């Protein structure tokens, strides 16, 4: 209960909106978006490094996508890929 009273005092209400809380939420999202932007730049740099070293970036991206999946899902997709390829005479 004390925590709720403290929150109520800290949140300056404007038109029924807790302005301090709203400002805090917006600022946190803005900080995270800046971090995401920085991380995206870092990832881009790593892919550039991979490409300059002779690695195929498309294949690396595909491997990363596969590693995020469950092993059973990967096995099922690979099995279906082989079946489809055989059906097409590949």
**How many domain units?**
2
Structural class: mainly alpha
Q: Given the structure, what is the number of helices?
A: 4
Low-confidence stretches: none
Please indicate the percent range of residues in DSSP E strands (runs of 2 or more): under 5%
Rg: 25 Å
- Sheet with the most strands? 2 strands, antiparallel
Family: Belongs to the UPF0335 family.
Coiled coil: 22-49
Protein name: UPF0335 protein CFR75_11385
Organism: Komagataeibacter xylinus (Gluconacetobacter xylinus)
Q: Which tags fit this structure?
A:
mainly alpha; 4 helices; 90 residues; 2 domains; single chain; 79% helix; two-stranded antiparallel ribbon
Describe the model.
The protein has 90 residues and is mostly helical. The chain has helices at 2-10, 19-52, 57-67, 71-87, and strands at 13-14, 17-18. It has a two-stranded antiparallel ribbon with strand order 1-2. The radius of gyration is 25 Å and the shape is elongated. The model has no long low-confidence stretch (mean pLDDT 89).
Please render the helix and strand layout as text.
Layout: H1 2-10, E1 13-14, E2 17-18, H2 19-52, H3 57-67, H4 71-87
Antiparallel strand pairs: 1-2
